[in-house]
Amino acid sequence: MEPRFDLFSNEIAGKFTKRFANTGLVLHNSTLPRATQELVSLRASQINGCGWCADMHTKEAAAAGETAVRLSLVATWRESTVFTEAERAALALAEEGTRLADASPGVSDETWAQVRKHYDDDQVAALVCLVALINAANRLAVIVHQQGGSYEVGAFAAAVS
Predict the structure, then answer these.
(1) Which residue segments constitute the domains of the chain, with CATH numbers given?
(2) What global pTM score does this model have?
(3) Which of 41, 56, 133, 143 has the greatest number of beta carbons closer than 10 A?
């Protein structure tokens, strides 16, 4: 599969993606734990089949100190013992918020209650916005066949500066 279009070299797409990426800085700088942010972004990217975003979030998480075991088990977090209750709540929200078409009620009351149990209002806001943002990013990359494998740690930060 070859990339269809380079979003970074087109003037309109470049302006949009830079502004889009800058919205991520608000979330990056929030009190939502960085590990949770990367795990949520990775899980949504896995569900959406976005190799570019999965590559980026795996590498950024590893650079921030995330273990290979936890990164390897994100796709099977329900059957794994390496995630905290708070991370499990965030991963459930990420899955249910990503798979909206698969479940008529969207995010379940049970998942929402677990999220509210573990996160304060600012963290909930960041988590909800993160799920929306990563799903939008996945769609951008999947539509143009942006392939994973070439992401360099820190490239995201450099792109928005």
Answers:
(1) 11-160 (1.20.1290.10)
(2) 0.94
(3) 41
Report the pLDDT averaged over residues 22-31: 93
Helix 85-98 / helix 109-118 crossing angle, nearest 10 deg? 140
Give the helix ranges, DSSP H, for the chain. 11-28, 34-48, 51-63, 68-73, 85-98, 109-118, 121-143, 155-160
Instruction: Give the dihedral sign, CA 121/126/128/129.
Output: positive
Query: 100-128 as b/e, with b when 16 or more CB fall inside 10 Å?
Result: eeeeeeebeeebbebbeebbeeebbebbb
